[in-house]
Amino acid sequence: MKYFTKQFALIFFSTIFSFAYSQKRELDPQAFSDSIRQTGIQLLDVRTSGEYEQGHLTGALQADWNNPDQFRERVASLDKQKPVYIYCLAGSRSAAAQKWMLQEGFKKVVNLRGGINAWNLEDLPVESAQKVPQISLTDFLNSIPKDRETVLVDFGAEWCPPCRKMTPIMNELETEGYAILKIDAGSQTQLTKELKVEKLPTFIVFKNGVESKRITGLCTKEDLKKALE
Fold first, then answer.
1. Is residue 75 within a helix (H) or strand (E), and if so which, with residue range?
2. Number of neighbouring beta carbons within 10 Å of residue 196
3. What whole-number distance in Å separates Cα of residue 218 and Cα of residue 98?
4. Can the peptide bond before residue 201 be classed as cis, meaning omega within 30 degrees of 0?
5. Exposure of 120 in the CB half-sphere (CA atoms within 13 A)
6. What residues are labeled active site?
7. Angle between helices 221-228 and 161-175 (to 10 degrees)
8. How far is CA 135 from CA 140, 185, 193, 195, 207, in A?
9. Which of 25, 156, 182, 211 is the most exposed place for a label (fewest CB within 10 A)?
10. Measured between alpha carbons, how far is 133 from 43 in angstroms, rounded to an integer?
């Protein structure tokens, strides 16, 4: 009887602990909303770029869980030591992504229960991508400074984790006097298509108005300086 009681107690407290732990890893929309107001958190939307543009949480980064290569590449730029709050449309994709990220060493990943569908039912705020005038290829080429022999064009987006990680390097290069032209690839979709920019960030070096080299993804300041020589 003692053995049975001890085993029962062990199972009972184990169940309670597991339930409490799962509650911390998944939050309802209001608790999720309160939590993402903290400083130092990372907010990740794992839906497609099309879904993201239709409406997303303010400040969210984007990495498509259904595109494994893109997802791994973008998530690699996140800080594993800082909390990640994650969501999708209804909660299943983000739950799968959450499990994978925890296995990859992320310390804390919290899922939005019910996804953005549940968020919308609570009338919580979302942002939508604003339509902006598209820059033509001709206008883009004319915008490259004529008084500079070499110009570095940075194709990135605010919601792209690797792009954000490269921002300090780009700021340093600008401070050092390099000519930098930044293009929001998230909104200038026509231009990125014409220039065959398929990954973000992409850095294109123009010498005397002609493309001479391009680098995709994360790189060092030294890599960019070498390309600009």
1. helix 68-75
2. 8
3. 23
4. yes
5. 12
6. 88
7. 60
8. 6, 11, 12, 12, 20
9. 211
10. 28
Q: How many helices (H) and strands (E) does the chain have?
A: 10, 9
Average pLDDT, the chain: 90
pLDDT in tens, 101-112: 999 999 999 999
- pLDDT tens digits for 19-39? 344 447 999 999 999 999 999
CA atoms within 13 A on the CB side of 50: 1
Residue 32 DSSP symbol: H
What is the token pair recorded at 128?
A: 């939508």
CA distances to 36, 94, 101, 128, 214 from 71, in Å: 21, 12, 11, 21, 22
Across the strands, what pairs with 182? 154
In the chain, what are the domains? 2-121 (3.40.250.10), 137-228 (3.40.30.10)
pTM for this one?
0.80
**Any idea what DSSP says for residue 127?**
B
The whole-angstrom separation of Cα 216 and Cα 115 is 32
What sign for the dihedral angle of Cα 114, 117, 123, 126? positive
d(CA 142, CA 78): 36
